[in-house]
Specification:
A 3-stranded mixed beta sheet has the order 2-1-3, with no helix packed on it. It contains 3 helices and 3 strands; from the N terminus they run βββααα. A hairpin with a 4-residue loop joins β1 (10-16) and β2 (21-26). It has a domain at 7-51: Rhinovirus 14, subunit 4 (Irregular), CATH 4.10.80.400. It is 21% helix and 20% strand. By secondary structure, it is of the alpha+beta class.
């Protein structure tokens, strides 16, 4: 590596809007303010809502749920070859 061309990799404090603070390393060199973190994000807290518009997921499962076992081969076509 060439000397004196790389930025300093320092420990910084990340502050979330929910009040959570944690330390990480970055070349930023100052505090970092974020809107969401792992303590308040719905995905990580388990409060995420799955939105099913007009039952489309259920319609898909009803229509294609039985076909998930794999492709079906006709009995007569399996033994015939070129």
């Amino acid at each position: 590596m060439k000397p004196k061309i790389h930025p300093e990799y320092k420990e910084i404090t990340v502050i979330c809007s929910c009040g959570n603070k944690f330390k990480t390393k970055s070349v930023l060199g100052r505090e970092l303010h974020v809107e969401v973190c792992s303590n308040c994000h719905p995905f990580y807290t388990g409060k995420q809502k799955v939105m099913d518009t007009a039952g489309r997921v259920e319609k898909f499962r009803q229509r294609y749920g039985k076909a998930t076992a794999g492709p079906q081969v006709a009995k007569g076509a399996a033994g015939k070859g070129a």
